[in-house]
Every structure is written in C-alpha cells, then in structure tokens.
Recover the amino acids of this structure.
C-alpha cells in the first residue's frame, strides 16, 4: 500500500517521529537509509538527534513520555524557519 514513497525526501516531522526507533537501532534498513539521507541534508535535524541522544545519556534511558506535543511543535516551527531561510 505504501510503496510509492520511492526517493521522496523524508520530512522533518517524519524524522522526529522516528527518532526514538533510530537511537534504539530499531529502524529497518530502508527507513534507516532515508533517515540518514535526511540528516545529510538537514543540520537542524542533526542537532535535534544529538540533543535527543544527550537527553537519553543524562537520564540513562528514554524520556518516559518522549517529547510533549508542545516541544515538538516548537521544534517543527524552528525547522520551518530554517527551511524557509533555505528556500529561494
Ligand atoms: Zn529536518
């Protein structure tokens, strides 16, 4: 059903949704490749993943409730600003 996503760039929102699986090594090969492809193009998400890892290091485990919707919205707003600055 979802086989038409060939070569479409993962969005920042998709990356945020997959970051937990990524740091736990639970992404399958195809999604891992797309995740890293996005990281190669998007320094904002690189910083996000690094901060996520740091949080886990400090807590010693994943945040109990992961990120709250408010925090996610804030991050996505930052992503939008960054992409807006990039386009055109
Ligand atoms: Zn991104």
């Amino acid at each position: 059903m979802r086989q038409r996503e060939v070569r479409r760039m993962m969005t920042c929102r998709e990356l945020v949704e997959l970051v937990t699986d990524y740091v736990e090594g639970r992404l399958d090969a195809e999604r891992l490749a797309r995740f890293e492809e996005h990281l190669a193009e998007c320094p904002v998400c690189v910083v996000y993943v690094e901060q996520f890892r740091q949080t886990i290091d400090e807590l010693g485990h994943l945040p109990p409730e992961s990120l709250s919707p408010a925090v996610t919205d804030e991050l996505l707003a930052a992503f939008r600003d960054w992409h807006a600055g990039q386009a055109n």
In short: The CA atoms of residues 45 and 74 lie 13 Å apart. DSSP finds four helices and no strands in the chain.
